[in-house]
Amino acid sequence: MRIALALTIALACAACGNDVPPEQRAEDDRMLAEQVREANDTLPPLEEVVPEPIQYADMETNDLFGLACSYAPGTSMGARVIARETDAYMKIDGEMLRFAADPGSRELPANSRSFYNGREFTLRLEVAEKEASDDSPFYEGTVWLRDRFDRVVYTGTGAVDCGA
Q1: Could you tell me where the DSSP H helices lie in 42-160?
Q2: From what superkingdom does this record's organism come (predicted)?
């Protein structure tokens, strides 16, 4: 009895769909397709990232000693990025994230690179040229972190220490 009732309702609903003129059905389909396109083109909300200072324990755990450039924002001396010849690291939400160097990108001091790729983010680095009269061991540098939609989620400018 229940199966017959369900079958009757299903057939009645299917019959109602046939009452729509083909022009109206085409317009409905076009509107639905447009809504799907809009939904697919909408990016998720931008989530800014605040990198944490890389501690000595983080450096030991990830073997981050040797030739590298350390980027620290503003007047802070706590490195937020450590960039090496083949990889770079940032600490975000308590987790050390590794980025692979793009071998085709520009070479920076200490054999580091200007561009690194990660699973969730990409990292772009810039080091300003030093004047001949500048005997400071530090460079001026900028860091850009972009999400998978190529939106900047962090930028910082400050001191860069390159060496062993």
Answers
A1: 56-61
A2: Bacteria
Q: Show the domain range for 25.
A: 2-41
The per-residue DSSP string of 11-69 comes to HHHHHHHTTS-HHHHHHHHHHHHHHHHHHHHPPPPP----PBPPPHHHHHHTT--SSEE
In degrees rounded to 5, what are phi and psi of residue 8?
-65, -45
At 81, which helix (H) or strand (E)?
strand 81-83
What gap in Å lies between CA 159 and CA 79, rounded to an integer?
9
What digits encode the pLDDT tens for the residues 66-82?
Answer: 999 999 998 778 899 99
Same domain? 28 vs 93 = no
